[in-house]
Structures are given as structure tokens and as C-alpha cells.
Amino acid sequence: MVTRGFTGKAGDYGQSRRLPSGQHVVSDFPVLSATPTPLIDTENWTFTLKNGPRVLAKWNWADFKALPQTKMTRDIHCVTTWSKFDTFWEGVLIDDLLAAADLVAPSAYTLAHSYGGYSTNLPLADLISGKAMVATKYGGKPLAPEHGGPARLLVPHLYFWKSAKWVNSLQFTDRDEPGFWELRGYHRYGDPWREQRYTND
């Protein structure tokens, strides 16, 4: 369960129960990006909800930061085989974005878009019910640009390429449209517990 202000660690499990097959635990936070790191001033940052090309809701940085803020501690898993336990994030749940827009999601699929042209596809079911957020802080501090700041998508139960850095919009789509890495051979879904790294996994 995710609640606002929740900062407790995940359950007291042994490492083997927390580590998907093929992964190894790291203590640092590796920096991997498909595109160069854009430097985005929060004065010019916006986040948009869209249905196809049509804008449904839009926030600037000040309005976004005024939305309900949630804290979340989760393990994360990168497709390049590293995992990091007990990462601590703060941001706005996708549920709270939909509520703030007074919006019932119009489709079962989404594409997350980022500054710099990156995109990744996600089923709506993997973004709601407390599963995902647009994160603006990591470890209690503003999210650094190399880790996706000022804001990145956080979908911790999927491989980390699904947690799009520098996110600026979430687009509802009628079908499951592949994004940047999915068009280049990565799995459409990306469940680390099923080792869904590449197209036919």
C-alpha cells in the first residue's frame, strides 16, 4: 500500500526473494540514458495529459508541486542487470493526476513522452492504484538531471527503462504502441520477474 508520507522500507525479505533472476544488487545509482541529458528549467517545465493529440490537462511546475505529494520506497531493476534496493522517491501519483484533472482515463494504453524525444509504452493498469508516480525527488532531494530531473516517471515493478526520464506528458492511446526501446527490440511490457528483456522473452 502507498500512502502520503509513507517512508517505511519494503518488507523484511531475504535478498533472494527481492532480486529477480539475472540481476545483481548495486549500492550506487548507475546512470544510463538513451539520449543526451537535457537541462530543463522548472520555469519552462510542463506536464500534459493527452488523448491522442488532444490536450486533456496541463500543469506548470508550481501547479504540479501544489498537487498531493506521495513518498514511496521501492526496489528498482534495470534491464542491464543491476538492481537497487530501498530507493526513496517523492512525487505525484498518476491516480492523483487523474483526480486533479477530473478525468476518467479514456483508454487502456498509454505512451509516456519525455524532453529529448524518448517514449515508452505502458498499460494504464500499471500506472494506477498506487503503482506509479511522476517523481520529482530522490533520497529527499530534488531529482538530479542525470537521473531524470526535474521529473521522471517511476514504475518500479517494471524494468527501469519504463520509468521514463525527463517525462513531460502521458498520452492515452487506443492500442499498445511501442516506444523508443520497444521499437528497437526490447519487450513491450518488461516484467523483471519474468525476465522480459527482449521482444521474444
Keywords summarizing the entry:
201 residues, mainly beta, Sulfite Oxidase, Chain A, domain 2, five-stranded mixed β-sheet, globular, disordered N terminus
Q: How would you sum up this structure, described in words?
A:
The chain is 8% helix and 32% strand. With 201 residues, the protein is mainly beta. The chain has a single domain, classed as Sulfite Oxidase, Chain A, domain 2. Strands 1, 4, 5, 8, 9 and 10 form a six-stranded mixed β-sheet that branches. A five-stranded mixed β-sheet has the order 3-2-11-6-7. The protein starts with 14 loop residues before the first helix and ends in a 28-residue tail after the last strand.
Q: What is the helix fraction of residues, given as a range?
A: under 10%
Q: Distance between the terminal alpha carbons, to the nearest Å? A: 30 Å
| Biggest sheet layout | 6 strands, mixed
Q: Under the CATH scheme, which class?
A: Alpha Beta
**Number of DSSP-assigned strands:** 11
CATH-scheme architecture = Alpha-Beta Complex
Query: How many helical stretches?
Result: 3
The rough form would be described as globular
Q: How many structural domains does the protein architecture include?
A: 1
Q: Could you report the average pLDDT, rounded to the nearest whole number?
A: 92
User: Pairing-aware structural class of the strands and helices?
Assistant: mainly beta
- Report strand %: 25-35%
